[in-house]
What we know:
Blueprint: H1 3-11, E1 13-22, E2 25-36, H2 40-48, H3 50-56, E3 60-62, E4 69-72, E5 77-84, E6 88-93, E7 105-113, E8 119-127, H4 131-137, H5 140-157, H6 164-167, H7 171-189, H8 195-209
Antiparallel strand pairs: 1-2, 2-8, 3-4, 4-5, 5-6, 6-7, 7-8
Helix pairs in contact: 1-7, 4-8, 5-7, 7-8
Protein name: SRPBCC family protein
Pfam family, one: AHSA1
Family: Belongs to the AHA1 family.
Amino acid sequence: MNENDIVDRINAVHRELGRKRIPAGEGATVLLRRRYDAAVEDVWDACTDPQRLRRWFLPVTGDLRLGGTYQLEGNARGEILHCEPPRLLRVTWVYGENTTAKDVGEVQVRLTPGEGGETILEVEHAAVVDPEFWDRYGPGATGVGWDGGLLGLHEHLRGHDFDESTWQHTPEAKRFNTLSSEAWGAAHAATGADPERVAAATRATTEFYAPADDDPQ
């Protein structure tokens, strides 16, 4: 993947921030919207079939039905709250151990068929965020990871498996994550947030996802 490809992948995503009431409280939201050149049924299947999910996102286990639970390997877990094929999936999102009720976020995946046979995918992640954490990292702490997921889905729908654990150790991933962090900084600034705080949060997020001393082989 060259520089132009990376820039194109970043620019293909619309990013915005908002607020939303969820059971855990008043949550901050990050929203990503992207167009895929694939039928809505195919995109839905890629997002919900365990055998396909592991090829571009993460292995998933659990009681994968409405009201059941899921576990993404090494990542989040939760409950399946709403499933309306092939348009809407809503789940709780819990990351880490020793969690409380305020740690339970929600993720919605919404699919809309386009007029030309393409699919518009939206991912909305809502969570009650500790103010200190938000001031330090801003929306990129969550958004950069989802950008990587949407990139993996793009590659998968083009017929290429995407191993994120391998990808993250490449110079291309470092560049992608840097541009993603900057894009989330721009989305943050668009809300009217203080420019100095936005810049500081963007730097912290970039350092986390693309550390300066990282030397990919």
